[in-house]
């Protein structure tokens, strides 16, 4: 399942996968290099070197989540309603409500 993201500050659009990373399964840390994700490329490379490749088994399940979280922190937002629903259901973003029923109680002193 893919989500479409857009960064309004930099005017960039990206598509990211949610879930298990088959590319990390087959190619190790190379997908992070092609995505320009230098931080996770070096972390994965170092972890795989230190653990004789066992960290590879962990990153297959985590890398797409880590990459997507970094994009959201960098200011990317869902560019369509389907992507927003996917990110909401997976817990990457939280829907904010503009009107709260508790706004009327802000002036009260307890």
Main sheet makeup: 3 strands, antiparallel
How confident overall, as mean pLDDT?
Answer: 89
Q: Count the strands?
A: 3
Structural class: alpha+beta
- Bin the helical content: 40-55%
Q: Cα distance, first to last residue?
A: 48 Å
Total helix count?
5
Q: Looking across the biggest beta sheet, what order are the strands in?
A: 2-1-3
The run of helices and strands is EEHHHHEH
How many domain modules? 1
Poorly predicted tracts of residues:
none
Shape: elongated
Radius of gyration: 18 Å
Proportion of strand residues = 5-15%
Describe the overall structure.
The chain has helices at residues 22-27, 30-34, 38-50, 54-73, 81-90; strands at residues 2-7, 12-17, 77-78. By secondary structure, the chain is an alpha+beta fold. The protein has one domain. The chain has a 3-stranded antiparallel β-sheet. A hairpin with a 4-residue loop joins β1 (2-7) and β2 (12-17). It is elongated and about 50 Å long. The protein starts with a strand and ends in a 20-residue tail after the last helix. The mean pLDDT is 89.
Write a brief structural summary.
This protein has helices at about 20-25, 30-35, 40-50, 55-75, 80-90, and strands at about 1-5, 10-15, 75-80.
Present the secondary structure layout.
Layout: E1 2-7, E2 12-17, H1 22-27, H2 30-34, H3 38-50, H4 54-73, E3 77-78, H5 81-90
Antiparallel strand pairs: 1-2, 1-3
Keywords:
single chain; 110 residues; alpha+beta; three-stranded antiparallel β-sheet; 3 strands; 13% strand; transmembrane helix
């Amino acid at each position: 399942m893919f989500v479409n993201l857009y960064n309004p500050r930099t005017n960039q659009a990206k598509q990211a996968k949610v879930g298990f990373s088959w590319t990390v399964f087959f190619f190790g840390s190379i997908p992070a290099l092609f995505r320009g994700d230098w931080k996770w490329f070096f972390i994965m490379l170092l972890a795989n070197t230190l653990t004789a490749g066992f960290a590879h088994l962990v990153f297959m399940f985590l890398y797409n989540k880590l990459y997507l979280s970094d994009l959201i922190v960098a200011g990317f937002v869902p560019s369509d309603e389907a992507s927003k629903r996917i990110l909401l259901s997976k817990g990457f973003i939280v829907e904010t409500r503009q009107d709260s029923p508790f706004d009327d109680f802000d002036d009260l002193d307890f």
